[in-house]
Write a structure and sequence with these properties.
CATH class of the largest domain: Alpha Beta
Strand order of the largest sheet: 2-1-5-4-3
Radius of gyration: 29 Å
Number of strands: 12
CATH topology of the largest domain: Heat Shock Protein 90
Structural class: alpha+beta
Strand content: 15-25%
Largest sheet: 5 strands, antiparallel
Distance between the termini: 46 Å
């Protein structure tokens, strides 16, 4: 019955060969998306050799051998020289027995096809396929697989560039937050040093914990629970400054607390609500922070009943207009889009005198996203 099912569902031998090739490529891809390193080469090379069906395969960078898989390992020492010769030409080359001298009887490594690996027009390494004799089919196949590997390495470079961009954006956000918040927090703490030393000490510890979290150097993502703990510390410090004028309501669904969110994606929105919504308003101001489960997404809302804002100014802030005094609104929007796609940018509802509501949507599960 199993054999009959396979014949029915996998079709001809050509179909099964296509399936095997796609399966081998899918197994090699995750390692290659980490870039061309000894570790990624070791994890991917067995699957790349299955794609080509050769007795042996080697991966090199521009300096030397990274990994070898298959028979004929006594030829490993020749691999760097083949790479250098290919890198000089910048195109696929074939090598014969004169380039691979061997005294071992029955060794299948007699010829090689070597293709360059190119990332952004830079040759970064080579893919080397070894066989008993040269064929035009092997040359074409090696060149095609090398181009596919190059594509995976380019995606790895894009991932690395995106991470560097997000790190730079977080550094810029930290620099934007610190002058406003640190000055106000220390001023509030100082006001309690003589009148209420115990509270001053508690606030100073909260300030230390907040700054430790905000200026940490590891990870593009955190859990919503950690982000909300940082928000809670921020609000405790702001309430020391505003007193009863600042009222906060939290409504957090427990099931979304483990969801991974971009680092510092909620606190800047709360700071904007305090500074722009309530600081210049008279009387008591309310901030509502909620997070709830919506199927495949977590929805976070930060709302204030303050003075509101001109929608055109908000549009400019989201576009990254540096001339506006807005703590990180465009920064958070850009990082959400970079992490999850353009469908997950900020949604801002506001008008003069009508308060402001900012909605953040994040997928509960996203490839490559973890705290």
């Amino acid at each position: 019955m199993v054999r009959a099912w396979r014949r029915t569902h996998l079709g001809s031998e050509a179909d099964r060969a296509t399936f095997r090739a796609l399966h081998s490529a899918s197994l090699a891809s995750p390692a290659l998306r980490e870039g061309l390193t000894p570790g990624s080469a070791e994890r991917s090379i067995r699957h790349l050799r299955a794609l080509l069906g050769t007795p042996a395969l080697a991966l090199t960078d521009s300096a030397g051998l990274l990994a070898w898989d298959g028979t004929g390992q006594h030829h490993e020492g020749r691999s760097p020289a083949l790479a250098v010769a290919t890198l000089e030409r910048g195109a696929t080359r074939s090598f014969d027995r004169a380039d691979l001298p061997c005294a071992e009887a029955g060794c299948p490594v007699r010829t090689a096809v070597v293709s360059p690996l190119v990332v952004e027009e830079r040759v970064v390494g080579t893919l080397q396929a070894f066989a008993p004799y040269p064929t035009a089919g092997l040359a074409r196949a090696t060149d095609e697989v090398a181009q596919w590997v190059s594509g995976q390495l380019e995606l790895a470079e894009l991932d690395a560039s995106r991470r560097r961009l997000m790190e730079a954006e977080v550094r810029a956000l930290r620099a934007q937050i610190s002058p406003h918040f640190i000055y106000n927090s220390l001023g509030a703490i100082a006001s309690f040093v003589r009148t209420d030393p115990d509270r001053a000490r508690e606030l100073l510890l909260e300030f230390a914990d907040f700054t430790r979290y905000s200026f940490r150097r590891h990870g593009d993502f955190t859990t919503l629970a950690e982000e909300l703990r940082s928000v809670e510390r921020y609000l405790l410090l702001e309430q020391a400054r505003f007193g009863e004028r600042l009222q906060v309501t939290l409504g957090i669904a427990p099931e979304v607390l483990p969801v991974a969110v971009p680092f510092l994606c909620v606190q800047p929105l709360v700071e904007n609500a305090v500074r722009h919504g309530l600081e210049s308003a008279e009387g008591v101001g309310h901030i509502r922070i909620s997070a709830h489960d919506r199927g495949q997404e977590c929805v976070i809302e930060v709302e204030d009943d303050g003075v509101g804002e001109d929608p055109e100014r908000v549009r400019r802030a989201l576009a990254g207009d540096a001339s506006l005094d807005s703590v990180g609104l465009g920064n958070v929007d850009a990082r959400l889009r970079n992490a999850f796609g353009d469908d997950f940018g900020l949604v801002v509802e506001t008008a003069p005198g009508a308060g402001t509501k900012v909605v953040v949507r994040v997928p509960k599960f996203a490839p490559g996203v973890h705290p």
